[in-house]
Amino acid sequence: xxxxxxxxxxxxxxxxxxxxxxSAAAYKNYTVGDSLGWYDLSEKPTADYQKxxxxxxxxxxxxxxxxxxxxxxxIQTSNLTxxxxxxxxxxxxxxxxxxxxxxxxxxxxxxxxxxxxLLKEGPAFFFSGDYDGDQCRGGQRFKIPSVAHGQxxxxxxxxxxxxxxxPNSDDVDNEDSAPDTTVPADFSHxxxxxxxxxxxxxxxxxxxxxxxxxxxxxxKSSLKNSGERFAVSPLKLVVSGIxxxxxxxxxxxxxxxx
Length: 258
Description:
The chain is of the alpha+beta class. Helices cover about 35% and strands about 15% of the residues. The chain is built from eight helices and seven strands, in the order H-E-H-E-E-H-E-E-E-H-E-H-H-H-H.
């Protein structure tokens, strides 16, 4: 009988693992070109960057890692014409980002690793813009047909405008309240790019009535946060219910056989 009772226990563990599998998905880092790195085809004639890109599925929050040197650059654009012409001189900052720049005139090269986060859904194009586009036209480029939404952007990659909470109406009306301050992080690329935003800070004062209002809001916020901490997903509830039914079923069978 003991062996039978272990069956639902194993089944429950397996079902719980399946239910948690979706939440275990993580953002990924993709090394462009794998071991070949990011170089023009005169240096790496076997590199096929488009074939490499076609073999992966990319989502928001993933990173592309470009292992290259100072003789090559990393340009990202959502403008198909810019990509096809291998020329970003007249591109707009809104659709094209220069993540790294090279100096073709410098004969002394140094290794460079450039990490590029995927921040927007839809098509994305990458190329090296050095030597007036010759590296790009020679094959050092690739396109991602569509970056999927996936899990969406993690908080650390969201622009500050999406992270900052709406200002409290009481603080806006209160002359003693300090203004909100948003502190963005730096992605460490030449154009500054979007970064992560820090939390807003506000210091306010008020009379006794405003103090009572603050206490009431604080209590409501605590209740809300407590509810969020102890919230259970519907899937986990279903799995737990099935586990309980399996255990009860085996116990009933065992009792009937005694």
